[in-house]
Design brief:
Elements (H helix, E strand, L loop, with lengths): L4 E5 L6 H15 L7 E5 L5 H8 L4 E4 L16 H6 L4 E4 L2 H7 L3 H14 L2 E6 L3 H5 L3 H12 L11 E5 L13 H17 L9 E4 L7 H5 L6 E4 L6 H9 L8
Parallel strand pairs: 1-2, 1-8, 2-3, 3-4, 4-5, 5-6, 6-7, 7-8
């Protein structure tokens, strides 16, 4: 049975006031949801403690990035074990902004996935193609390569800790989004790639990210291989984020 997940990535946004007001509102609204969706808040690391406190065990909390080391002289880094110790259940890895702005390679992503899984966290592994790659007809090949590379160190008993988030780079923060049909086609291709890699493809949750909003979430979530969303800007507005959570079809586990 696949988990249905809506995760809000705050990126480099937030404050103690936002953590108190937004998370409190989302928590109270999420308690009334009857569609089986798991709601995850992923703030900057400095606010994880505030968000965990406000979540009150009713929402899951994640961290946006971890180092590839367990501990040591790595000033500014946060380890997977630290995130776990603070109450996190999830962590993003391989987000396109980390790949593009900080030069994270497929090999580094794989090392971080290995570290996350060893800590007991669930890794939300981000993959996606650029506009040039899509226009060149290479979108599926690029995404398949990213998926395979990121998961090379996953042990058979760890697949339950893996979630894949497909975020076409050209749709992140641009207001553009893939059509529901295009997103479904890529998610179906990712499942094929997972099966080829020896993963239990039908049990792994696949999320769509890339300008998901309240007005397009229902169409995206209705597709058979889209199990939820990784939400950026809309996760900073409680009304918008809750509307997206409500858009998950009832009977949410597939």
């Amino acid at each position: 049975m696949r988990r249905k997940i809506v995760a809000g990535n705050w990126k480099m946004n937030g404050s103690k006031d936002l953590a108190k007001e937004l998370v409190g509102c989302v928590r109270s609204e999420a308690e009334a949801l009857d569609n089986g969706v798991e709601v995850v808040i992923i703030p900057p690391a400095i606010y994880v403690g505030d968000v965990v406190e406000q979540a009150g065990g009713k929402l899951a909390v994640g961290v946006q990035n971890v180092g590839q080391w367990s501990s040591g002289a790595y000033t500014g880094e946060v380890s997977a074990d630290m995130a776990k110790d603070q109450g996190c259940e999830y962590a993003l890895v391989g987000h396109s902004e980390r790949r593009q702005l900080f030069g994270e390679s497929d090999e580094l992503v794989a090392a971080k996935v290995e570290r996350l899984l060893a800590s007991g966290l669930t890794a939300i592994v981000c993959v996606g193609e650029t506009l040039d790659e899509r226009e060149a007809g290479r979108a599926e090949a690029v995404v398949a390569s990213q998926v395979k590379a990121a998961l090379t160190k996953v042990a058979a008993e760890q697949w339950g800790q893996v979630v894949i988030a497909y975020e076409p780079v050209w749709a992140i923060g641009t207001g553009k989004t893939a059509t529901a049909e295009d997103a479904q086609a890529m998610h179906a291709a990712i499942r094929v790639t997972l099966a080829e890699a020896g993963a239990p493809a039908e049990s792994i949750s696949l999320l769509y990210g890339g300008s998901v909003k309240a007005d397009n979430a229902a169409a995206l979530f209705a597709e058979p291989d889209i199990d939820g969303g990784l939400i950026g800007g809309a996760s900073l507005k409680s009304e918008d984020f809750v509307s997206i959570c409500r858009a998950m079809p009832a009977g949410a586990e597939s």
